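The data layer described in this paper is built around a simple, fixed record for each protein. Such a record has a labelled line for the sequence and another for the backbone structure tokens. For reference, a complete record is included directly beneath this paragraph.
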Amino acid sequence: MTALSNLKRHLRPGQAYRRKDLAKWSTAVDRHVRQLIDEGRLEKVSPGLYMTPRKTKFGTASAKPKKLVKAFLGDDRFLMVSPSAYNGLGVGTTQLYNEPVVYNRKRHGRFKLDGRMYDFRMRSSVPKCLSEEVLLVDLLHNLERLPEDEKAVLSSALKTAKQMDRRRLSRAVDDFGSARAERLLAPVLAPA
């Protein structure tokens, strides 16, 4: 078995790989990566990051965004949020966004992966999953970035917060909230 065929054996459709991951299975990683790109078995997503396209009935497709982000970070402790999700809270936001926000513990900045921009923001603590409470806390944290009327959205968000489970909302503020979100939600979370 050649070194190149050994590397091919480890590639899975729809997966993303860092160069250092590929180096574990290759004796000449740069040459082999170049050959695999020429064959169409690998695609370069960003510097040092590659993916194997997956076949669908409509042709080839990229790796799923979560797999790209996981490989890019080299970590699975992140939360990907589309600000479009704020619209589901019923607080008066209506905009659609094309750039997901990735809360993580390693990278900060805007990066292009597979032709799509991602806004990476470092946080000391990242929730495992997106709940309504975490989404509301995130909305309050990013209120000034929204194009809607800030006062109207804030008023509506605080009304929505009063309808939420106080214990889960308090945990979301403690685990994920900024000082601003904590200050804005203090009257809602104050003991009755």
About this structure: The beta strands are 16-18, 43-46, 49-51, 54-56, 59-61, 78-81, 101-104, 109-113, 116-122. The chain has a mean pLDDT of 92.
